[in-house]
Amino acid sequence: MAEPVYLDNAATTPVDPRVFEAMRAFWLEDWGNPSSVYAVGRRARRALDNARDRCAQVLNCRANEIIFTGCGSESDNLAIKGSAMALAEQRGWKHLVTSRVEHHAVLHACEWLEKHQGFEISYVEVDHHGRVDPAEVAAAVRPDTAVVSIMYANNEVGTIEPVSEIARVVKATNPHTVVHTDAVQAGGLMPLDVQALGVDSLALSGHKFYAPKGVGLLYLRRGTPLVHLLSGGGQERGIRAGTENVAYIVGMTVALELAYAEQAERVAHVSRLRDQLIEGILASIDGAQLTGHPTQRMPNSASFAIEGADGESLLLNLDQEGIYASSGSACTSGTLEISHVLCALGLPETQARGSLRLTTGVRTTEADVARLLEVLPAIVARVREVTPSLVG
Ligand SMILES: *Cc1c(COP(=O)(O)O)cnc(C)c1O
Predict the structure, then answer these.
(1) Torsion angle, CA of 128/131/134/135, rounded to 10 degrees?
(2) How many angstroms does the Cα of residue 173 sit away from the middle of ligand 1?
(3) Contact 73 CB / ligand 1 (< 6 Å)
(4) Phi and psi (nearest 5°) for 237?
(5) Has residue 108 got a pLDDT over 70?
(6) Residues 328-355: pLDDT tens digits?
(7) DSSP letter assigned to residue 337
(8) From atom 8 of ligand 1, which residue's Cα is the shortest distance away?
(9) Ligand 1 centre distance from Cα of residue 205 (Å)
(10) Which among 96, 84, 187, 182 has a CA at the least distance from the CA of 137?
(11) 190 DSSP assignment
(12) Vertex 23, ends 74 and 201: CA angle to 5°?
């Protein structure tokens, strides 16, 4: 059997061997607790401080504006819940603005605030390409809006949102509203200069750019109101208690630096293969359409709605051929619910059910793309045959 073909780099990425090597020493040699005063602890502390400085360099911010976390979801939760509850306390503000296409880490954090803290949520709609209109965000902002959270790039359809424009219009409407962005998909491929983006907080996750799963960071602009969710020791300036995961933080830092040192080559590579996927699929499969924005999309993302084909069946058939792909976040897997993102784009159900997401990465090859293009037409035909009720 041939090597498996991995076309799901938006779900996670393999650890870069250079990242793995950089982490080694923090298990085997410099394994101390960064809060300890003796040498092995001091070495861990130096590595942690150094990692923070280097992440800050990439994001163009101060080192003390970086908070290391356990994942992208934690970063989103800390930013949204933390700032929302701080503004509720300080000003009595209990209103949130977000979009219909956010990751569940954002949507469910907002819903949690609605359910447990009495917040009200306004959802801005997206166009059929998944784009948020900054004017609609501005129109949704009220004098009591605590947090606006709009993602940088969508994980299902790859659409890039006009985040800097959104930040600008929100601040012009209510300068005290906190603007958060979930940049987890954008991290590693898109510019991350937080001054240019103009946001107050930004979430990243290491495993989306060749660091291990289980480490993330939050950029938090100095002066941004935030209550702390995780109580304990004084780690991360008291914002996020818990002994720091030094090895993973170092790994994420190295991965972040490599991503931006190699950004031009990586973007050229993944977008060339993505374009081959898009052109090949649209040419060979009738009733396939690109979902998401035609140009304002992530360089690694090719996503489709395939009329009359069931997405789950496509994935199972591809898996049998050793090809790993993804469908829309079929919400909680196993349910028949269709993706909230494809619903928000206004796709009819017969199309939304046939969603297929292919995301390229630094290790993807032309042979991988050719293999997918070789087997997909027959798989689509077979799947359509067994799901006749869905054919339009
Ligand atoms: C993967 C992802 C997350 C969650 O990150 P984890 O580190 O897996 O918690 C959040 N938002 C987006 C857009 C993502 O793609």
Answers:
(1) -10
(2) 29
(3) yes
(4) 55, 30
(5) yes
(6) 755 444 555 789 999 999 998 888 999 9
(7) P
(8) 72
(9) 6
(10) 96
(11) S
(12) 30
Q: Residue 335's pLDDT is what? A: 52
User: Which ligand 1 atom lies nearest to the CA of residue 105?
Assistant: 10
What amino acid occupies position 129?
H
The answer to whether 59 and 38 have CB atoms below 8 angstroms apart is no
Residue type at position 301? S
The residue type found at 261 is A
Which domains are seen in the chain, by residue range?
A: 17-261 (3.40.640.10), 263-390 (3.90.1150.10)
Q: How far apart are CA 98 and CA 109, in angstroms?
A: 11
Of the candidates 100, 48, 52, 88, the one whose C-alpha atom is nearest the C-alpha of residue 220 is 52
| Cβ(205) – ligand 1 distance below 6 Å | yes
Ligand 1 pocket test: pick from 73, 74, 151 the residue with the most ligand atoms within 8 Å of its Cβ. 73
Euclidean distance between CA atoms 190 and 166, whole angstroms: 17
Q: Strands (DSSP E) along 185-230, which ranges?
A: 201-205, 216-220
Residue with tokens 């958060």: 180
**181 CB within 6 A, ligand 1:** no
Judge whether 331 counts as a catalytic residue. Answer: yes
SS3 at position 264 = helix
